[in-house]
Amino acid sequence: MALEVGIVGLPNIGKSTLFSALTKVQADAANYPFCTIDPNIGIVQLRDPRMSRLTELVSPDKIVPATLQVVDIAGLVKGASQGEGLGNKFLSHIRQVHAVAHVVRCFEDPNVVHVDGKIDPVGDVEVIQTELILSDLEQTERKIERLSRQLKSDRALASQMAVFERLRDFLGEGKLALRMELSKDDKALVSELNLLTMKPYLYIANISEAGLRNPEVHLQQLLELAAEENVEVIPICAQIEAELAEMEDDESNLFMEELGIDSSGLDRLTYSGYRMLEQITYFTAGKQEVRAWEIRKGSTAPEAAGKIHTDFEKGFIRAEVFHYDDIDRFGSESSVKEAGRWRLEGRDYVVQDGDIMHFRFNV
Predict the structure, then answer these.
(1) Which residues are CB-contacts of 298 (< 8 A; sequence separation ≥ 6)?
(2) What's the pTM value of the predicted model, to 2 decimals?
C-alpha cells in the first residue's frame, strides 16, 4: 500500500495550486470555496542522490525510486464536522491517509478571497483542528455507545470502555488524540477508530515570494504555534513552486539559487513525509534494476523482504547486506566484499536506512 500524505486546509489558501506544482497533476484551483470536491491524487518521487550514484555505479537497465502519494483534499470550513461545506465527505477522505500536511495561508493578497475575510494563521489552524477533534469525538462517542450495549453480556469489555471514556474526555478538552498518553495495547485499541487527530502532521506555510527572503509576521505567528506543538513548518511559496514545476532541472536549480532556496517544496515535503511516517529506504541493486524500497524504521530483514514479495518473507533464509556508504566509497560490490564490508544477516537483523540487500529464500 502506497504511503499517503493528505493536504488539508481552509478553502482558498493555495492547496490545489501547491498540489499541482508538487505533483504535476492538474487540480482545480479557483478564487472561490469548494472548487475541489473529490480528492486529487498524485505520486511524487523521492529525489534521493543515492539513487543517482547507484545508477552511475551499477548501470542498471531500469531504476525505480521511492514514492509518496499526495492527496489534495477539499477545503474544510467551520462546522465541517456537522456537514457544513460538504464537510463529512471531506473528513472521510482524510481518514484514508497516513499523515496530514496542513496548508496555512501566510500571505496577503486582496485579489484572493479568504473564507473568513482576514489573514489569521493561528485562527485558521484552530478552525481545522476543532473540526477534526469534533469528528473524532463523535466517532469515540459512537464506540462508547456500542460498548455500553455489549457490556451487558460481556463485563470483560470494561477495561476497553475505560480507555475510550478517557479518550472522549481528552478530546472534549479540545486536545488532539496523538497528544494523549497511551500504552502500546491501548494505542492499538484506539487505532481501530482511525482517528483524524491521531495522524502525524506538519504545517505548510503558503507564503509570498517576498516572504522567502524576509519572513513576514503571519509566518512568525505560525512558527510560534508550531514550536509549542513541536511540529515542523515548511515555508513554501505555491506560485514559485508552480514556476519551478515548469522548468528543467538546471534551470530550476539556478532559479532556486537566485531566490536563496536550498531545495524545492516537493523535496522538503517528501522528506518530511518520510520522517513523519518513520520510513527509511533500503535498496536492491543489480544490472536489471536499481530500486528503492520504503519500509518502517525498525523493520527486520524478513519484513523488508516481504515488501518485494510475500514469498520472500515466508521463505526467508538469509540476507546479503552492505551499506550504500560502502559502495559509494569502494566503487563496486566486488570491492565492498574485498574490503570485508559485505555480510550475511539473519531473521533478527534490523534494516538500516541505506542498506543494499539481496535475499536468499526458499518456498
Answers:
(1) 278, 350
(2) 0.81
- The interaxial angle of helices 265-276 and 15-23, nearest 10 deg, is 90
Q: What number of CA atoms fall less than 13 Å from residue 45's CA on the CB side?
A: 11
Q: pLDDT tens across 232-276, in order? A: 999 988 888 888 878 887 888 888 888 877 777 777 888 888 888
Sheet with 63-64, strands from edge to edge, namely 63-64, 290-296, 279-285, 355-361, 316-323, 343-345
Tell me the per-residue pLDDT of 163-179, one tens digit each, with 9 for 90 and over.
Answer: 999 999 999 999 999 99
Q: Of 136, 144, 137, give the one whose Cα is nearest residue 160.
A: 144
**Cβ-based neighbour number of residue 10 at 10 Å:** 25
For residue 169, the tally of other CB atoms under 10 A from its CB is: 13
Strands (E), the chain: 4-8, 40-45, 63-64, 67-72, 99-105, 201-206, 233-236, 279-285, 290-296, 316-323, 343-345, 355-361
Contact 232, 39 (CB under 8 A): no
Q: Note whether 140 and 193 are within 8 A (CB).
A: yes
Look at the block and give the residue holding cell 548501470: 59
The C-alpha cell at 118 is: 482576514
Sorted by sequence, the CB contacts under 8 Å of residue 165 that are 6+ apart come out as 144
Residues written for the chain = 363
